[in-house]
Structures are given as structure tokens and as C-alpha cells.
Amino acid sequence: xxxxxxxxxxxxxTFSTVSGQEHVTRTLxxxxxxxKVAHAYLFAGPRGVGKTSISRIFAKALNCVKGPTPEPCxxxxxxxxxxxxxxxxxxxxxxxxxxxxxxxxELIDSFRALPAPGSRYKIYIIDEVHMxxxxxxxxxxxxxxxxPANTVFILATTExxxxxxxxxxxxQRHDFRALSFADxxxxxxxxxxxxKLSVEPEALRMVARLADGSMRDAQSLLDRVQSFCEGKxxxxxxxxxxxxxxxxxxxxxxxxxxxxxSERALERLAECFSSGADPTLFLKEFVAHWRDLLIARFGSxxxxxxxxxxxxxxxELLAASEGISAADLQDLVxxxxxxxDTALRSAYPKxxxxxxxxxxxxxxxxxEVAAIVQHLKGVLSSGSGGGSGGGSRSxxxxxxxxxxxxxxxxxxxxxxxxxxxxxxxxxxxxxxGKFVSQAGGKVSRMLAEQLKRLAVETFAAGTLKxxxxxxxxxxxxxxxNKDQLAKALAxxxxxxxxISLQVQSAQMKSAGGAAPATLQESxxxxxxxxxxxxxxxxxNHPKIKRLQEVFSGSTIESIKIR
Length: 562
Prior knowledge:
By secondary structure, the chain is α/β, with parallel strands linked by helices. Helices cover 57% and strands 8% of the residues. The chain has helices at residues 6-9, 22-33, 51-63, 77-84, 101-110, 134-145, 165-168, 181-194, 201-211, 215-228, 235-242, 247-258, 262-274, 279-298, 301-306, 311-322, 326-345, 349-362, 369-393, 407-416, 432-442, 445-451, 470-477, 479-493, 506-511, 519-539, 542-550; strands spanning 40-44, 90-94, 122-127, 151-157, 172-175, 455-460, 463-468, 498-503. α9 (201-211) runs parallel beside α11 (235-242), α12 (247-258) packs across α14 and α14 crosses α16. The chain is elongated and about 120 Å long.
């Protein structure tokens, strides 16, 4: 007799032996008990979670000699024929190969026949029903809405979104769930015990994780592993057989990333691939490992248990994730996920994975934006306070003395500027605004904006003397900017210019009107006056006054000028 694979050998035979779909089996069992069996059902869900198995169990429950009963005996002729797929009362149809209108018409013709002798119901199970053509669905609509007596349709699909709404509305829909890790591991343990297999718990957990919620996939993987292994099934041999990766390898790679050792991370990756790891499976396990680290750091212990993490692995995950900041861990998880997506789409996934590991291991630590902003505020406030405090501690600067902000810079500036010849034209102080405007258009807009912040005391006879904020003075005293300013002054009214700028001290700021007004202050004052005039004009508008009369006691808080 030919070998029967585990997925067929251990297919559930009753509702009670189905794993993880109690919300479906309980509903169907109760509908049989209460004699409320619908004429059409839609079973939708991922692959390998029990759609076809439950369809056959439901068919046995309806046609069992002792039934209809939610617990078919499995011993009568009807149950055995349905389980073997030879029953005349149950017809299983593959929607992928019978998707035309002609196939559906042939199916409709068979509806006129009575159920097979000894059977109560005719049951049609259409698998992968979403593969039917639009015309085939339309031909089936009338039969789904008003089927012949004692006829039950069961439509199974993995892609319910491809089925027309007109079909879904005529069926009782049941959504199957992907099986949990615990359900798959428990079932695999039962199968291993029944088959008298010696399996390491870690090997079963590895198979359950790779099954990704599909019981059939898990059983097929276990079949593959037991064929590969000699004697006891170990985690190492399971990893080699399936092309996956052991957890300890993932831990060593993540530890190398945390320690910023790209060399060691690449070495472990090379060892992993040399042992036959599949890049696609490795990427999935790699991303899952970083997710486990994230959940270990921010989630609850129950969340880790739901992911199939053992108690020992849980301790190791917690220990590994504690040594890194929350922002860094979140950034690494995002890098791993996005990099894995790119690698899976790449023609060279292994090379993309190596580049990903190097990027993760050599990245700069992440700092919270809020912390950076707070730090900058502290720096700016301390810098401003230092300027003011320094000005208050130093002696007041006489108005007639030109004291530079930095003695060394002043000495270099004085030595580099030639004596002013008597023939230098004299600039009118009123020309300062014209000069700044010209500098903004011909030289540099940034330079002009800084000049607007200067309070100019002297602008004549080749001498520019003034004061301003610390940032402005430092900017203009830089050699490149100072040379640019001197050239702009020479182009404007000729000659060589001596430039003396100092930071406004606390006394200057507190003096108020004693210091000359800057162009920036003049522009702001002029703009405010214009806005006040416009606001006053708008406030006197008849419509505004009418509104104030309607809403007596109201006041206008602000007016937006366009």
C-alpha cells in the first residue's frame, strides 16, 4: 500500500478534532441540532486551516445513518464513502478547472436528480470558487437563491474578495482564522506521539513557526523533516532540512548589530548560508526575530507566549533588548522590516541582506527629536544669558570708544585695513538703507538680512561702526563675510573701509531709545502702522458696524488683512 502523507492521515474526522475553528464548528453543530441547516455556505480563509475538512465533516453529519447529527459515527456506509470521496451524494468540484458557463449548466442539470439512495441531502462542495468566471457565477445565482429541496452548497475560497457580492449575499458566510502557534504545536505533538517520533521541542516550534498559521503546511513540513532525519529529529537537522535558521544564530546576529560589529554579523550570516539556509526563509525568520525583540521590550509576557516563544527564549529576548534604547530598537526593527521587503523583491536577496546587516550595524544612534529640541533650547538660552551676563560684568563701553567684540579679531582687522585717505567720499547716514538694499540684490540676501539687524552708529568717511545681536556680529566678523561687506561698501561709494562691530550689551538693550534703530525694527514699525491703519479702516466699514449692532456687546478681536 502506498504511503499516506500526514496531512491526509490525520485529517480531522469530527467537529471536535478540528483545531482552532470552534466559531465555525459550533455554529454548524448547533444548526444541525436545531434543524436550521442553510442551503448555501461560504467558507473563506487562508490555506490549510480546515475548510475542506469541515465541509466533509458537515456532509457526514447530514447524511450519517444515525443523523442528521453533529457527531457522525464514521462507521456507517455513508460516512465511509464520504471520507473516501466515493459518495454519490457528495460531489466535490474544483473551481479552477470547472470555471466555465458550460460546467455550471451541467451542474445545474444534476440538481433535478434526487439524493442517492440512503442519503438525505445532495451536497456540492466547490473548492476555490473564486476561480469561476463572471458568467459562471451569474448562471449559478438562481440555484443558490432557490435550490432544489435537500440540496446544500458549500463554497470554499482563499480569496473571498474576488467573489461577487451577489453570490456572498446568498450564502451563510464563515471566515476561518489562521491557526495559532499553540494550536499547531499541540497538534504536531499529538501526531509525533502517534507516529512514535522522537522530536526535540525546538524542532516542533521551528516547524510550527514556518507553517505560518496553516495546519496542512505544518504537517507537510513535519513529513519532510522526518524523511530527512535519522533517528531523533533535532532542531539543527530540522534547520538544515527546511533551509531555515536556528534561534541561536538569530540571537548572535542581533547581538553583533547591538555591539556595532558588522564584521561578526557578516561572519555569522556567511556560516548560516554555508549550511544551506534559504534566503527567503531566513529573511522571514530575521524579521520575526526583531519583532520578538520589540514585543519583549514593549509587550506583555502573554504576547510573547502567543508567538511561540519558550520561557528560555523569553529570558534571552528580554536580556538582549534591555541593553539598547527604545528609540534605537524601534529604528532597527523598522530597518529590518523595510530591508527585508527590499531583499525579497531583489534578484540578489543574499547581497541585499548583507548590505542590510552592515547598515544596521553601522548606523548612528537615534536621538529623540524632543530631546534634541530641548537641548538646543538650553544651548540657545545659555548662550544668550552668557552674552548678557558677560556684558553686565564688564565695564560699560564709552560711546566714543570703538571696542571690538574679540581683541584678536580686532587686531587682525586693524592691521589688514589701510589708512583712510582724505579723498574718500562721505556717505550720508540716510544712505544706509539704500546700501543694504543694493547689497541684498547684488551681493548676498543673507548678508543683507544680517545688516538689517545692525544698529549703525557711524556710516561715513570710510568707517562703519555699529552693534547688534551676537549671532549677527559673529557672522559679519567672519573673514569671508567681512571681506564681502568691505567690497560691497567700496563698490557702493568707493575707497577703503574700516569696519568695527560689537555685540549689544545688556546696558545697550536696557537703554531702549539710546541705541540707533535697526532697519529691521523700522520695517516692523512701519508694517505695524500700516496694519493698524487698515484695521481701523475695516472697523469703520458700514458692514462691520452693522454686525456689531446685530451682535450687541460683541468686540472684534482680530482682523486678517489680505
